C-alpha cells in the first residue's frame, strides 16, 4: 500500500507539472519589413510576457498582410497581428477605427484606445469565434505627393493614386475627388510611388524610412500635414484555442504599453524632414473633412462601417472639440 501511494503521489506531481506547461500557439505577424522589423521585434517582447499566462507563442513574420489574414482565416494561424482595415472581417466594431477622418489627432486616439482596452469594453472585443486582444496605434495616415502643387483635394482630379484595392473607404475617397485608382497592396504601393507609376500614395510616417518614400517625394513633392485616418494594429485570436481570460490580460498589458507606442509614432512623424511637410489651406482642410464625412456615411449605409463605432468616435471628437459644427448635427 505504501508503494502504491508513492506511485500515485508521483503521478499526481507529474500531471500537475504537465498541466503547467504553456500551450503552444502560433502568432502570424504582419510587418512590411519582415522578421527584422520593429513590429515583429515588439511581438518578441510580447511573447515573453504571455509565457506567464500559460501560452507559448510561435511567431511567424509576414510581409504580405493579405497572406497573413488568409492564413488566420483558414486556421494556419491561431492568432494574428494586422491592420484595423483587415481586422474588419473579424470584428466589425474595431475594424471601423480606421474610418476616414474619424480620429483627427492622437489626442482623440488616446481616449478611444484607453476606453476600448478597458474591461468595460470587453463585449465589443468578441465577435463570433474571434477576440481582439490588443489594439496599438501605428500612426496618422498622410498623403504623400510627388508634386507639391497637389496640396488639396481639388487639385487631385485626374491624378494617379496608389489605392489599397481591398479597402472600400480608399476606393470611395479616390473616386470622390475624381482621381484614378491604381490598384496596389501594402507590399507594392511604395515601389509604385517611388518610381513614378503613381502621383500620390498614403501611408503613416512610420513607413517613410523603411519603404524609402523620400525617393518619391524628392525633389518636388512632400507630405500633406493633414491626417486622413489613424492606422492601428490589432491582435486577434481564435478564442477557443486560448486559456480563459487571455484576452482580458492581453488588453490590460497593451494598455500599459500605450504611452510607449505613442512615443514611437510621434518620433516617426518627426523623422520626416521639416521641409517636406506641406501645410494645406484651411479651406482645403474643411473640404476634406466634409468629404470624409460623406464617405463615412456612405460606408455606414452599405454596412462597411459599424454605426456604433462611428457614433462612439464622434462622441470622443466632440468631447475634445465641443464647439465643432458636427457636434450639433446628426451625422457621424
Automatic annotation (TrEMBL):
It comes from the Bacteria. Pfam families: AdeT1_2. This is RND transporter. It comes from Pelagibaculum spongiae. The lineage of its organism: Bacteria, Pseudomonadati, Pseudomonadota, Gammaproteobacteria, Oceanospirillales. Gene3D superfamilies: Bacterial extracellular solute-binding protein, family 7.
Amino acid at each position: 500500500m505504501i508503494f502504491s501511494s508513492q506511485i500515485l503521489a508521483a503521478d499526481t506531481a507529474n500531471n500537475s507539472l504537465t498541466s503547467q506547461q504553456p500551450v503552444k500557439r502560433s502568432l502570424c505577424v504582419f510587418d512590411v519589413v519582415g522578421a527584422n522589423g520593429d513590429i515583429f521585434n515588439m511581438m518578441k517582447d510580447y511573447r515573453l510576457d504571455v509565457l506567464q499566462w500559460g501560452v507559448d507563442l510561435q511567431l511567424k513574420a509576414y510581409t504580405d498582410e493579405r497572406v497573413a489574414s488568409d492564413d488566420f482565416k483558414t486556421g494556419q494561424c491561431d492568432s494574428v497581428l494586422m491592420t484595423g482595415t483587415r481586422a474588419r472581417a473579424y470584428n466589425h466594431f474595431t475594424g471601423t477605427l480606421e474610418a476616414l477622418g474619424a480620429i483627427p489627432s492622437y489626442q482623440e486616439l488616446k481616449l478611444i484606445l484607453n476606453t476600448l482596452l478597458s474591461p468595460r469594453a470587453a463585449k465589443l472585443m468578441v465577435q463570433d469565434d474571434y477576440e481582439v486582444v490588443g489594439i496599438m496605434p501605428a500612426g496618422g495616415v498622410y498623403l504623400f505627393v510627388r508634386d507639391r502643387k497637389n496640396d488639396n483635394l481639388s487639385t487631385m482630379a485626374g491624378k494617379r493614386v496608389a489605392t489599397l484595392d481591398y479597402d472600400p473607404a480608399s476606393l470611395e475617397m479616390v473616386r470622390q475627388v475624381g482621381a484614378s485608382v491604381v490598384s496596389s497592396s501594402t507590399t507594392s504601393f511604395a515601389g509604385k510611388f517611388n518610381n513614378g507609376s503613381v502621383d500620390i500614395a498614403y501611408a503613416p510616417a512610420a513607413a517613410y524610412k523603411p519603404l524609402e518614400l523620400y525617393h518619391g517625394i524628392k525633389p518636388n513633392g512632400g507630405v500633406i500635414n493633414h491626417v486622413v485616418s489613424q492606422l492601428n494594429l490589432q491582435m486577434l485570436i481564435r478564442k477557443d484555442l486560448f486559456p480563459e481570460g487571455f484576452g482580458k490580460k492581453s488588453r490590460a498589458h497593451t494598455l500599459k504599453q500605450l504611452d510607449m507606442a505613442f512615443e514611437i509614432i510621434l518620433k516617426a512623424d518627426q523623422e520626416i524632414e521639416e521641409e517636406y511637410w506641406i501645410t494645406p489651406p484651411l479651406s482645403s482642410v474643411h473640404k476634406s473633412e466634409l468629404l470624409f464625412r460623406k464617405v463615412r456615411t456612405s460606408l455606414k449605409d452599405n454596412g462597411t462601417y459599424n454605426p456604433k463605432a462611428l457614433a462612439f468616435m464622434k462622441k470622443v471628437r466632440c468631447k475634445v472639440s465641443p464647439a465643432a459644427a458636427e457636434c450639433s448635427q446628426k451625422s457621424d
